[in-house]
Amino acid sequence: MASVSINSPVAQSGVRNDEPGALGRAMLTTRGLIISRILFLAAVLLTWEFASGRIISKFWLSTPSAIMQTLWKWLHDGSLWVHLEATLTEMSLGYVIGCVAGVFIGLVLGFLPTVYRVVVPFLGGLYCLPKIALAPLFVILLGIDLGSKVALVAISVFFLILYATLDGIHDIDRDLVQALRIMGATRREIAMKVLIPGCLRWVFTGMRIAVRYAFTAAILGEVIASNRGVGYLIEAFSGQYNSTGVFAAMLVLVACSLTASELLTRWESSATHSKAGV
Amino acid sequence: MPRGDTMLENRPKPTPVSAANTGGAMVRMQDVAKDFSVRGKETRALQPINLTVNRREFVSLVGPSGCGKSTALNLVAGLLTPTSGQVFYDGQLVQGLNERVGYITQKDTLLPWRTAADNIAVPLELRCRNESRKVIRERVAEMIELVGLRGFDKHYPGELSGGMRKRVALARTLIYEPETLLMDEPFGALDAQLKLLMHDQLQRLTQQRKMTVMFVTHDLAEAIALSDRVVVFSARPGRIRAEREIPLDRPRDVFKVRFADTFSRLHEELWNELKDEVVKGTDV
Ligand SMILES: Nc1ncnc2c1ncn2[C@@H]1O[C@H](COP(=O)(O)OP(=O)(O)O)[C@@H](O)[C@H]1O
Ligand SMILES: [Mg+2]
Q: Which among A58, A210, A241, B273 is least surrounded, fewest beta carbons within 10 Å?
């Protein structure tokens, strides 16, 4: 959990140090780190550019410059937008549906332990099923457009969030509940003051992880059957052995996934008390 | 492992006020014994004990660790049910949680996602008390001052020392002024000076608010300085080995009381009872 690092004494004393990894503190200042990262990226890109066409054929590996040109062209003539829009719509719709349903069902099951005990093996079974196996079914049921992808994304996200919520509730110290009950708290007050805030952190962690799952599900759904979307682009270009197009589409994906993940991290740290230390 | 089932049980109705036949007894433990079964094996934590705590009395329980002091408080709070015997609170059999006591448990039960101030405010936010925001804020500030935590009100429990967390827990309980306080080694983690300050505050508050207190400690001097009566438990499984009234006048000067002759005599007397048990307790 990224938020934990906020609690480290290093962060509190105001001395910023990025990732004090297993081998001791990083020796770089923030500026030094950024410069090093740029140099690293440049080295990789230059090696790629150089190796391509000399050591390995351009046909398989493409080149960074060609990829950038392609990307530039897509952005310029607007041909990227229709695909990006399709993917983002599928993914965000499915993500929201999955999260809301996951938290809701998770809380309900958390509050109704008997029901939970009845359904838990069935949930476990569905959870273990690789969701991608459902894709053909969704295509049959919902067609190759938006619906089937949204369903695939939603179901992937749903289980992740459901289990995060349940884990969060089960992780809550029973003694906290008893302490509040002795003070005279009602069921509702216990739920509002202990159970929900107690599992919030787990839910947020689940939601951050779920962004990646949502993307994967949307892209896989498109690769399997579709006529637009970034996944469709990848599938179509690889069908044409156009490695430049495949790489360019992948770059778009990386950018989207990073942005979404970052936005969620920010939201999380402003929405929860990131200093609570739990 | 759905632990939730007991979490949300309907809370028991508050016990109706006082049956007359109990006289001055606030807490009465009658032949109360408690066994725990650990991995199928029954072990006795508390032998049948009889203990009465009168209204407005301050009673300390001392004894070697593991002798069942916390268990006794848990029984009074209704967190545990006795294996045999009965616990009465204000003349009523304790069944389910006893909401008329304030319990400062040995274990930390602060909400980790709330600041010290917000933790202290919890009891006042509950519907049964339902104070306005302004009142809550003022009372919380008062309590923070009282337990000596000024400047730490915005800290989360994870950012406080053990002693500070104990004081937050203390403030959280004192703020709603329950008629009876159960305190389980509340000052164990404090340094000597701070402990004395807290004793002073506690004495003042319990006298002023006419509270009944059951106080568990392993510090005999603390027990004598604060209590009207000290109860010495034997080593595990606990039973009551000795009981002693503390005839020191109130209000006491907690800083000076330990230099009084009576104090040292009581200390010696009780220590003689306690030391054998501590020796027994430690070789287990
Ligand atoms: N929940 C429990 N399950 C099993 N054994 C317990 C439990 N609580 C306490 N005990 C046992 O009961 C005895 C008394 O414990 P406790 O009341 O906590 O002692 P004290 O507070 O005097 O140190 C100990 O031997 C302890 O191991
Ligand atoms: Mg104890």
A: A241
Please write the tens of the pLDDT for every residue from B172-228.
Answer: 999 999 999 999 999 988 888 889 988 998 998 899 889 999 999 989 999 999 999
Is there a domain that residue A199 lies in?
yes
| Residue A23 Cα, gap to closest chain B Cα (Å) | 26
**Distance in Å, CA A195 to ligand 2 centroid:** 27
What are the tens digits of pLDDT across the range A146-172?
Answer: 889 999 999 999 999 999 999 999 989
Asked if A197's CB is within 8 angstroms of B113's CB, the reply is yes
Taking the domains of chain B in order of start, what are their residue ranges? Answer: 24-100+179-283, 110-177
Is A255 domain-assigned? yes
Q: Give the range of the structural domain holding residue A30, as residue numbers without chain letter.
A: 19-44
Q: Which of A173, A177, A278 sits opposite B158 (nearest CB)?
A: A278
Q: Is residue A28 part of a domain?
A: yes
Q: So what's the architecture of B24-100+179-283 in CATH?
A: 3-Layer(aba) Sandwich (3.40)
Tokens for B195, please give them.
Answer: 């402990």
| Same domain, residue pair A32 and A93 | no
* Chain CA centroid to CA A120, Å: 25
Of B3, B14, B176, the CB nearest to A183: B176
Which DSSP state fits A3?
G
Q: A175 and B97: CB-CB below 8 Å? A: no
For residue A26, the model assigns a pLDDT of 57
Question: Could you tell me the pLDDT band of residue A275, with boundaries at 50, 70 and 90?
Answer: very low
User: A215, A152 in Cβ contact below 8 A?
Assistant: no
User: Contact at 8 Å (CB) between B104 and B188?
Assistant: no
Question: Which carries the bigger pLDDT value, residue A214 or residue B128?
Answer: A214
Q: DSSP for A220-251, please give it.
A: HHHHHS-SSSHHHHHHHHHHTT-HHHHHHHHH
**Nearest CA owner, ligand 1 atom 1:** B36
The reported pLDDT for the residue numbered A3 is: 40
Mutate to test the interface with B, among A183, A186, A190, A268 (most CBs of B within 10 A): A183
| Number of compact structural domains in chain A | 2
